[in-house]
Amino acid sequence: MTPPETIGSTLGGVAAALSEAGFDEARRRARRLLAAALGLSAAEVLAHSDRMITEDDGEKIASLLRRVLAHEPLSRILGVREFWGLEFLLSADTLDPRPETETLVEAVLARLPERDRPYCFLDLGTGSGCLLLALLSEFPAARGLGIDRVFGAAATARRNAERLGLADRAWFIVGDWGTALAAASFDAIVANPPYIESAEIARLPREVCDFDPLRALDGGADGLEAYRGIAADARRLLRPGGLFTCEIGMGQNVSVAGIIAAGGLVIEDIVSDLAGIARCVIASRRS
User: Fold this and answer.
1) How far apart are CA 281 and CA 158, in angstroms?
2) Does the structure show a pLDDT above 80 at 247?
3) Is beta strand 238-247 parallel, antiparallel or unpaired with respect to 278-284?
């Protein structure tokens, strides 16, 4: 007779399946999968390893595992992603936020140390709203505007603002970067634009190219198209002394810094993420 499955034994089996399929950090992924299927935290999965798995539990776990083995991100399956310690809804129109994008939030916090000031932020290509809403969670007197070219993304960002209790300080509109906005209105601009070269998109991991919206990935033939559009308006939109930060792809730091500088901003720094990859260009409007 086959012994009944426990959370611990099931965790081992799921981790083995993921490892055999070539997934990295298989044990961590398996723990997240079980937590999602069982309605537990990852810590509770470990703490209750002796708990028996019911037939219904087993079906839920098997269903999630099949989808993950087909390279569908668990965040897409669940429709939520944690970013900066906050939970964000995802939709078909939003990029799935990555941990390295938190580098932009850290860069702003390091350069705007007065947390109680009534700053005005602009988030270009807001997607789920994760950058703007993370900043507003840290600056309780600030307000901000998120812009996306896709209505569905702006609507998702608005829902996230409401869920996080930030809707009274965050507004979202549909627009083409900053072209429709008035001059010299913002203390800081953040942007995570599409920066993958068009020809490279098919070579991305399936979790990205099959599930993230193409428009949030495709940066044109050289991957720099969005930066040119953003740089055309960035200086005009910043107040004197204002801060500009944008995410960049691997190896793009020199090219993007050149584009931003040509738009009239002064490059202050290039910041790397935790993996040591240049991830964020920081600039300012001096006058």
Assistant:
1) 27
2) yes
3) antiparallel
pTM: 0.93
Distances from the Cα of 174 to the Cαs of 3, 48, 127, 130, 235, in angstroms?
Answer: 56, 46, 11, 16, 21
Helix 55-69 to helix 7-20 angle (10° resolution) is 20
Buried b (16+ CB within 10 A) or exposed e, 187-212: bbbbbbbbbbbbeebeeeeebbbebb
Q: What is the DSSP letter of 210?
A: T
The answer to whether 138 touches 119, Cβ cutoff 8 Å, is no
Question: Which pair of tokens denotes residue 194?
Answer: 């599409």
pLDDT of residue 184: 76
Q: How far apart are CA 202 and CA 12, in angstroms?
A: 33
Task: Looking at the structure, tell me whether residues 193 and 261 fall in a common domain.
Answer: yes
pLDDT tens, residue by residue, 155-176: 999 999 999 999 999 999 999 9
The pLDDT confidence band at residue 92, using thresholds 50, 70 and 90, is very high
Q: Where do we find the tokens 């005005």?
A: 120
Provide the residue range defining the domain that includes 39.
7-70
Mean local confidence (pLDDT), 125-140 = 98
User: By percentage, how much of the chain surpasses pLDDT 90?
Assistant: 96
- In this structure, the answer to whether residues 182 and 56 fall within a common structural domain is no
Do 107 and 161 fall within a single domain?
yes
